[in-house]
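Handout, page 2. Input:
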Amino acid sequence: MKENMNISRRRLLASAGGAVAWASLGGVAMADDTTTPASKSNPGPVSAEKPLPDYAKWKNADSMIVHSANTIETRRTAFGSSGITPLDRLFVRNNVSPPAASIMDNPGAWQVEVSGVAKPRSFTVDELKTLGLASVAVVMQCSGNGRGYFPHKPSGTQWTVGAAGCVVFTGVPVKAVLAAAGGMAKGMAFMTSTGGETIPAGIDAKTVMVERSVPLSAMEDAILAWEVNGEPLPLAHGGPLRIIVPGYTGVNSIKYIKHLAFTKEQSPANIQQNSYRFSPVGVKGTPAHDSIWEMPPKSWINLPSDPKQPVKAGKVQISGVAMGGMHAAKTVEVSIDGGKSWHAAKFVGPDLGKYAWREFVFQADLKPGTYELASRTTNTKGQKQPKERLENNRGYINNSWLDHAVKITVA
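Output:
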């Protein structure tokens, strides 16, 4: 993969001191720790104080916002209009710092253990490639995307819209792997995936390990992926091997997967039992609260969206993206007056399937003035993107069209 030597990258290379200091922030952290304070965004160019970390230096720095060494957001104006997010602009989110880059030296030798089956065994990536092949276009979205709009400022990264992207993963269907292992053992209710991050000695693995369980129904279109957008899966996005659970939030698509288990109970790890739970504001998540699994319908406008850049009066192409969650986006509407009136927009570009997002456009003839642009989508099941967010302690699953509205000036 070619390293993008843009202006910001050259600035970073000229400041080794800042990069060294930043590298020290890449240690193991509590997965989705509820005590982590709200991060401060870096709205300006990627800087010497907050450079791209080593494992993601190939990213297009001018397109990214670096919140921390493990949380990197795509700028709202940088998504492009093709519907597919370029890898060098795709966001990065790691609950625990990535494993050593050396695991990418021989990706075909990476092994995943499969259990909860008739014939438990391990498969190398090279062996998985003999079992079948499938590609799926999916919206990969952090559970906390849109957290920055919650008024109570939940702890964690203050994402706006950029902790999401639409990409094409390629790998082997989980159902094919299950068949190769003799089928599922009786009584299983969940598919549980364990990441291969390094956990230092002396730390209770359950407190930091990245292990997530999802209902067995999520297996239907799930794949073990070794490729994304036609390229080998890079370390920043879970290489050499990652499970992809279409329609579910990103935390459920475990990176560096080393163990795929079919289990009777959900994982005992903190990230499953207490984190990523839909609990009331001020209440820490517990197993009594719903787990953060499926994504709901959501859309937002990407262009124009910069309040500091006046738009020329006349015909303006208002464009953005719409996703349906577990079902395809069917329609999308645009408002130029903050939701007082709505107009049908049209989808553009290819339809890549129900788990992908669709690019949309609405042409408006705008006179000089100030406008509040918003969009809302409805999926094929009739689920409509709501006006208001659902309040919750950690700021998860924000699909409010009002929160994602933008104000622009037309001159």
